[in-house]
């Protein structure tokens, strides 16, 4: 993962986590990082240092609810979207799609120019 | 899929404690690192090697940065040693626990000195003026002494002098300063 990807990732981390959680009933921290890693063929690797602040923030905002369960002798915390969280995930995804479309339109010209040169 | 033994999970917990992980995050990070170790071990790596690899990622700096981010965002209460309530309690105890006895001792000393001086002067034949001075000064000093005790009691219960870390709202208030 290069520095540019990290830079773009910082602003979209919340959208990523919300969208991943929207696809499953509930997920735990490591599962989220693995899902992101697998879907991007290892291009995007989330660390616990970047993931947990987002998860805790989402919980504080009431978009996510948690439940702890003992798994293989250790306590595992599962995260699930609330009803508000599902709405927020949908909205975030729409906003991001719109943003990428805008970026594609905006950055098309310089790419064409560079190809001609 | 490899599963960690309780001893191996304990090693991870110990590592997290050594690098200063605080209790609210401990269980969650133990599970996170245990999953990571199990994944690595499934790929044929020994637990010792997996632990070494995990130690490279889960450093004290990474954990401290995570704590600071959570505190800054107000999702985790402040519990650093500098803002430890016990530290403040100790300081408050020192402040009100030493100053007050010294003040009381000085006042009692002054009170006794006046009586002694009065007695000495009286033995020299100056009973009336010395007795007059002692009669005026002794109640005054006694009042000052009682006033000092009253003030000390008020200070202990006043929220202004109360250590901030002991106030309920302090631990829940997000940290505003930028770190890093």
CATH architecture of chain A: Orthogonal Bundle
Largest sheet of chain B at a glance?
none
Helix % of chain A is 55-70%
Fraction of residues in H or I helices of chain B: over 70%
Listing every helix as H and every strand as E from the N terminus to the C terminus, the arrangement of chain B reads HHHHHHH
Calculate the mean pLDDT score of chain B and round it.
76
Number of helical regions of chain B: 7
Keywords (chain B): Membrane, Transmembrane, Transmembrane helix
Transmembrane segments (chain B): 105-122, 128-149
InterPro entries (chain A): Tscrpt_reg_PadR_N (IPR005149), WH-like_DNA-bd_sf (IPR036388), WH_DNA-bd_sf (IPR036390)
Pfam families (chain A): PadR
What does this structure look like?
Chain B: Keywords: Membrane, Transmembrane, Transmembrane helix. The complex is a heterodimer of chains A (117) and B (180). With 117 residues, chain A is α+β, with helices and mostly antiparallel strands. Chain A has one domain: Winged helix-like DNA-binding domain superfamily/Winged helix DNA-binding domain (Arc Repressor Mutant, subunit A), CATH 1.10.10. Chain A is 68% helix and 15% strand. In chain A, helix 1 crosses helix 3 and helix 1 packs antiparallel against helix 4. Chain A is globular and about 60 Å long. Chain B has 180 residues and is mainly alpha-helical. Helix content of chain B is 73%, strand content 0%. About 6% of the residues of chain B have low confidence. At the A-B interface, helix 2, helix 3 and strand 3 of A face helix 2 and helix 4 of B.
Topology of helices and strands:
The complex is a heterodimer of chains A (117) and B (180).
Chain A: H1 3-23, E1 27-28, H2 29-39, H3 48-60, E2 64-71, E3 74-81, H4 83-116
Antiparallel strand pairs in A: 1-3, 2-3
Helix pairs in contact in A: 1-3, 1-4
Chain B: H1 6-18, H2 23-42, H3 47-57, H4 60-72, H5 85-123, H6 127-157, H7 168-172
Helix pairs in contact in B: 1-2, 2-3, 5-6
């Amino acid at each position: 993962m290069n520095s540019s990807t990290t830079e773009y990732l910082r602003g979209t981390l919340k959208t990523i986590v919300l969208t991943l959680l929207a696809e499953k009933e509930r997920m735990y921290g490591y599962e989220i990082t693995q899902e992101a890693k697998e879907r991007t063929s290892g291009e995007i690797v989330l660390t616990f240092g970047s993931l947990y602040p987002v998860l805790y923030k989402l919980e504080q905002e009431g978009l996510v609810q948690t439940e702890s369960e003992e798994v293989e002798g250790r306590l595992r915390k599962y995260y699930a979207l609330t009803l508000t969280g599902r709405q927020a995930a949908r909205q975030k995804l729409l906003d991001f799609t719109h943003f990428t479309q805008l970026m594609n339109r905006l950055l098309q010209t310089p790419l064409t120019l560079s190809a001609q040169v | 899929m490899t599963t960690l033994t309780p001893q191996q999970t304990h090693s991870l917990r110990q590592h997290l404690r050594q690098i200063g992980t605080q209790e609210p995050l401990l269980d969650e990070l133990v599970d996170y690192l245990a999953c990571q170790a199990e994944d690595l071990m499934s790929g044929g790596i020994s637990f010792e090697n997996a632990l070494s690899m995990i130690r490279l990622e889960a450093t004290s700096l990474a954990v401290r940065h995570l704590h600071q981010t959570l505190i800054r965002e107000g999702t985790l209460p402040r519990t650093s040693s500098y803002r430890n309530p016990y530290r403040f309690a100790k300081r408050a105890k020192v402040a009100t626990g030493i100053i007050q006895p010294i003040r009381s001792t000085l006042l009692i000393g002054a009170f006794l000195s006046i009586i002694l001086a009065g007695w000495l002067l009286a033995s020299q034949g100056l009973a009336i003026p010395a007795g007059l001075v002692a009669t005026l000064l002794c109640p005054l000093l006694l009042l000052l002494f009682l006033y000092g005790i009253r003030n000390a009691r008020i200070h202990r219960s006043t929220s202004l002098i109360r250590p901030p870390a002991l106030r309920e709202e302090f631990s829940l208030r997000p940290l505003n300063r930028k770190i890093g």
